[in-house]
């Protein structure tokens, strides 16, 4: 197994369970090196803990394609590598080590959304369906022949984190079936149609900035797609009172956690995108492109997450205050 992160954990567990019934053991785990977080605490790696608990050797090379790492893999004499969210591109030299090559558990319906962020990109693009694809790994990114696909609808209010948890379980069920087929020689690879391919590149923190010139639906998709990371955010400029120089603005960076299209529209349709349309009845309604959006949950920078009503009780937001980039 070559994997890192929670998405891979159900697949690893399923392979361990499968090994007990078919006698084909998991002979090693390659996972990313331990990382040190704030306070010099090492982040817990549940895959590593599970492997060590089963007496499985763990390898954590900084780069899997070095001669030393490839030699460690070859010493295990593996028949197959199962890869899930490993976070490294595997070289032809590494892929040549396992007798049956390597397969990947990928969280999209390939060839759509090749890349590091398929779950987030599917929600961001407003897809109503996604799934998991098991494919044979080739040097080109996520382009190898398909071995199995499972599909599932995307919930109207589902976040990327929630969807990832469901896809992880779906991928585990699919992976053990493919491993059995490869062991029995019954797998039937299907070449991908690269003309239909689309990309899902790695996310950056700045991707979370909300553009209020987008539609309410597009902003809703962004808010759900970027949870739990990088999170959608915007800067609220509030004008709290008068000074000798006129209005005194106060800027506040807010993480936006939950939104929904709103019935309310700006009077005469003249409000600029990002303008606060309503703060009454414990509601926070904002103008977007072609419609209004109600923010129901948000988080001021450095504070806890809260409802719009809780936020409005503590901050002097007024109509015509506005969100900016």
Q: State Rg.
A: 24 Å
The CATH topology annotation of the largest domain reads as: Rossmann fold
- Classify the secondary structure makeup into a structural class: alpha+beta
Distance between the termini: 42 Å
Number of strands: 14
Measured as a percent range, the helix fraction is 25-40%
CATH class of the largest domain: Alpha Beta
The CATH homologous superfamily of the largest domain is called Formyl transferase, N-terminal domain
Descriptive terms for the model:
325 residues; alpha+beta; Methionyl-tRNA Fmet Formyltransferase, Chain A, domain 2; seven-stranded antiparallel sheet; five-stranded mixed sheet; 8 helices; 14 strands; 26% helix
Characterise the protein shown here.
The chain has 325 residues and is an alpha+beta fold. The protein is built from eight helices and 14 strands. It has helices at 9-22, 46-53, 67-75, 92-95, 118-124, 160-184, 216-225, 308-314, and strands spanning 2-3, 29-30, 58-59, 81-84, 102-106, 129-136, 146-153, 232-243, 246-262, 276-278, 284-288, 291-300, 306-307, 322-324. Strands 8, 9, 10, 11, 12, 13 and 14 form a seven-stranded antiparallel beta sheet that branches. A five-stranded mixed beta sheet has the order 1-4-5-6-7. Strands 2-3 form a two-stranded parallel sheet. Helix 1 runs parallel beside helix 6 and helix 5 runs antiparallel to helix 7 (216-225). The relative contact order is 0.10.
């Amino acid at each position: 197994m070559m994997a890192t992160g929670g998405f891979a954990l159900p697949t690893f567990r399923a392979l361990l369970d499968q090994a007990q019934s078919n006698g084909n053991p998991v002979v090693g785990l390659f996972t990313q090196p331990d990382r040190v977080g704030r306070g010099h605490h090492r982040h817990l790696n549940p895959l590593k803990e599970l492997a060590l608990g089963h007496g499985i050797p763990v390898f954590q090379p900084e780069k899997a394609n070095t001669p030393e790492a490839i030699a460690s893999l070859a010493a295990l004499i593996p028949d197959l590598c199962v890869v899930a969210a490993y976070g490294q591109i595997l070289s032809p030299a590494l892929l040549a080590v396992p007798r049956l090559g390597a397969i990947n558990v990928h969280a999209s319906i390939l060839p759509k959304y090749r890349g590091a962020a398929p779950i987030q990109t599917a929600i961001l693009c407003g897809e109503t369906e996604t799934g998991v694809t098991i494919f044979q790994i080739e040097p080109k990114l996520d382009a190898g022949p398909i071995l199995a696909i499972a599909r599932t609808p995307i919930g109207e209010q589902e976040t990327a984190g929630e969807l990832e948890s469901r896809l992880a379980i779906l991928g585990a069920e699919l992976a053990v079936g493919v491993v059995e087929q490869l062991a029995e020689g019954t797998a039937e690879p299907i070449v991908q149609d690269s003309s239909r391919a689309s990309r899902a590149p790695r996310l950056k923190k700045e991707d979370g900035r909300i553009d209020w010139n987008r539609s309410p639906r597009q902003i809703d998709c962004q808010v759900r797609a970027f949870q739990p990371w990088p999170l959608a955010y915007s800067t609220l400029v509030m004008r709290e009172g008068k000074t000798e120089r006129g209005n005194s603005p106060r800027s506040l960076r807010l993480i936006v956690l939950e939104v929904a299209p709103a019935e309310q529209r700006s009077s005469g349709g003249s409000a600029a995108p990002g303008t606060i349309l309503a703060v009454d009845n414990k509601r926070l309604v904002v103008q977007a492109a072609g419609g209004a959006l109600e923010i129901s949950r948000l988080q001021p920078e450095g504070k806890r997450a809260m409802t719009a009503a809780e936020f409005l009780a503590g901050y002097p937001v007024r109509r015509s205050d506005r969100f900016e980039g």
